[in-house]
């Protein structure tokens, strides 16, 4: 019996085309951009170069504090669940031994984990190793992108120019704010409020906020 020839045999593979001059110039521009601080009104929440260490980080999600209105960041790792205030950086809740069925978001169809501390009784969508995603734009024009001009190291780019191709000056219209050279990028994005940026790798989480650290708390909505 005659067998059909494999369509993917080596001799029939189409070689990958080289980058165009435009693509190469864009790649070189991204490679040449150093890591810089995020522009005002953004500020780092944690005082560590690489954020807060979280060994075995699996994913992160956002919630809102029912009393202060601050963005909260829930961190899911092999060591349990944690909850950070995204304005002050305070760790406000910790569960080192969550129930097996709730320890990781892949146990349920919507990739959620149960809230803890002030958001106990709710569920938080988690983006990271098992899928999902966070907001990459804000209503007032900020954009986040994860780009990899030199695989496998991801670069997180914050911009006010709408995203690629970033034809304006680096440090004025777009900013290379995070470079993952040591761990795998798990998730990045804005909170639903647009007031927080989070970047999570397999070993840490970094936060930026544009809310004043000593802002007045707002009453919870009825």
Give a verbal description of the structure:
With 222 residues, this protein is mostly beta strands. Helix content is 5%, strand content 35%. The chain has one helix and 15 strands. The strands form four sheets. Strands 1, 2, 13, 14 and 15 form a five-stranded antiparallel beta sheet that branches. It has a five-stranded antiparallel beta sheet with strand order 6-5-4-3-9, with no helix packed on it.
Q: Tell me what portion of residues adopts beta-strand conformation.
A: 35-45%
- Number of helices, counting only DSSP H or I runs of 4 residues or more: 1
Percent range of helical residues: under 10%
Low-confidence stretches: 216-222
Average pLDDT number: 90
- State Rg: 20 Å
Looking at how many chains there are and whether they match, the oligomeric state comes to single chain
Tell me how many strands there are.
15
Backbone shape: globular
User: How many strands, what sense, and barrel or not for the largest sheet?
Assistant: 5 strands, antiparallel
Structural class comes to: mainly beta
Q: Report the order of strands and helices.
A: HEEEEEEEEEEEEEEE
Question: In whole angstroms, how far apart are the ends?
Answer: 74 Å
């Amino acid at each position: 019996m005659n067998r059909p020839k494999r369509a993917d045999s080596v001799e029939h593979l189409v070689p990958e085309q080289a980058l165009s001059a435009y693509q190469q110039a864009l790649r070189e521009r991204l490679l040449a951009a150093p890591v810089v601080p995020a522009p005002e009104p953004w500020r780092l929440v944690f005082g560590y170069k690489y954020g807060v260490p979280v060994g075995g980080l699996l994913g992160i999600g956002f919630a809102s504090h029912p009393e202060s209105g601050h963005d909260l960041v829930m961190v899911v790792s092999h060591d349990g669940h944690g909850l950070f205030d995204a304005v002050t950086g305070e760790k406000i809740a910790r569960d080192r031994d969550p129930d097996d069925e709730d320890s990781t978001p892949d146990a349920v169809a919507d990739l959620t984990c149960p809230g803890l501390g002030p958001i106990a009784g709710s569920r938080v969508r988690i983006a990271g190793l098992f899928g999902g995603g966070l907001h990459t734009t804000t209503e007032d024009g900020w954009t986040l992108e994860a780009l990899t001009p030199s695989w496998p190291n991801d670069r997180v780019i914050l911009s006010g120019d709408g995203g690629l191709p970033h034809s304006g000056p680096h440090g004025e219209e777009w900013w290379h704010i995070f470079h993952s050279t040591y761990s795998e990028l798990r998730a990045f994005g804005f909170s639903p409020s647009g007031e927080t940026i989070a970047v999570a790798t397999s070993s840490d989480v970094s936060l930026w906020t544009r809310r004043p650290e000593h802002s007045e708390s707002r009453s919870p909505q009825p």
